[in-house]
Amino acid sequence: MGDAENCNEGGLVELYRKIHKAVEVSTAPERDRIYITIIIDDLSLLEVSAHGSSNHVLDFLHYCHTLTSEKGCSLVMLNHDDIYSSMTGQTLNLQMEYLADVVVKAEPLATGLASDVHGQLTILNKWVVDVHGSLRNKLQNFHFKVKENTVDYFYPGSPS
């Protein structure tokens, strides 16, 4: 069992080593300071790489989160809620939201389809300092309309 488990996480371990090395080289003291953003375009592909083990994916995300926190980098992850509808997937989504400083969700309208609005975007900024110096979460909602080459964003109720 141990060998199979090591094989399952091997791809993610190797990916993390490559990311870690690139971040270390880019943030070396002798180099000019650059800002690094690690982008994971589709989290479901990591789970495929780990042969379905969401635990290995969570371990990988925790390592990446720690690395980016220590080095002052950003970690951006794209996840598809429709892929993760199982109980295990919901755990993965909740863990990702817990690790995130900003959560962006694109969803269909709760009221159904509309011709002038294609969906809503919900943005949760964690740890925003308010005018009194207190930390709080800031939640914003926008509607969006997809056009041929762009997307228009606007406040609910305002003209698109």
TrEMBL record:
Any matching Pfam family: ELP6
Single Gene Ontology BP annotation? tRNA wobble uridine modification
- Its annotated pathway? tRNA modification; 5-methoxycarbonylmethyl-2-thiouridine-tRNA biosynthesis
Gene Ontology cellular-component terms listed: elongator holoenzyme complex
Stretches assigned to coiled coil: none
The UniProt entry's sequence similarity note says: Belongs to the ELP6 family.
**Official protein name in the record:** Elongator complex protein 6
The organism is Kingdonia uniflora
